[in-house]
Amino acid sequence: MIHSKITKLFGIKYPIVQGGMVWVSGYKLAASVSNAGGLGLIGSGSMYPDVLRTHIQKCKKATDKPFGVNIPMLYPNIEEIIQIIIEEKVPIVFTSAGNPALYTARLKKHNITVVHVVSSVKFALKAQAAGVDAVVAEGFEAGGHNGREESTTFTLIPMVKEQLNIPLIAAGGIATGRGMLAAMVLGADGVQVGSRFAASKESSAHIDFKRRVVETSEGDTILTLKEIAPVRMIKNEFYGEIEAHNASGKSVEELKELLGKRRLKKGMFEGDLKDGMLEIGQVAGLIHSIETARDIVDAIVAEYLEVKKEL
User: Which CATH number among 3.30.70.100, 3.40.190.80, 3.30.470.20, 3.20.20.70 corresponds to the domain 5-204+286-310?
Assistant: First the structure.
């Protein structure tokens, strides 16, 4: 047991939250992380409402430990998603990509713990004012969608900690026990780990994508698509198309047309390493193998305790 405000808030053994990533975080991964002592999250962003309900029900059968659901608030079926979460009595919800004031009070009325993901001090304070129970502050090292501020985790966490009164979870560039300890020294009460679990055996991602993550080294990821919404991804042929598009001076609308609607699914879920979008964080350079979620949690905790003792 590692005692912190986060373990107390969620009723978990270790202050480790698995990121609720699209096309990656199904019930198998969420349940496995929760069973290992962390907090598993189902990523609803790539699920139709009926699919999400099925994953929630299967997760309940696969673990008797706390778990949660991550909801991107720009989701087109957000009202239906919220209702399913209430009906299924999901204990914890992480919201992102939107205004936390819209649904926090409604969720808390049903005794649901609410956490909001932010990329700046400004939005952390707005989330606190909206009544959330905790905040995830994510540096731009993270994979997937990022804040426009491009603040690093190392600078963001202490700045948020300085002004926040509620528990703080650090995210972005954390995949090891050393990273977890560093984040907590900076003021975090726990960590959210995404990329490391994306390359786990229980991840829903395609095996070819997982292998590509393991092969990724320093400098192989890039923050791009800033004209629409900043995204960190692995440089591949599709990224080359984005660069060529930008160099030609074409419009944002034409860029959206280039992206289409299935690039992320094509890359991460279907394993198209050439034409798909391959979202992953800079920390992929520290991921050298595909392990079980339990082994990942155990390794993070063991290194955290060892390094903390050495210091």
Answer: 3.20.20.70
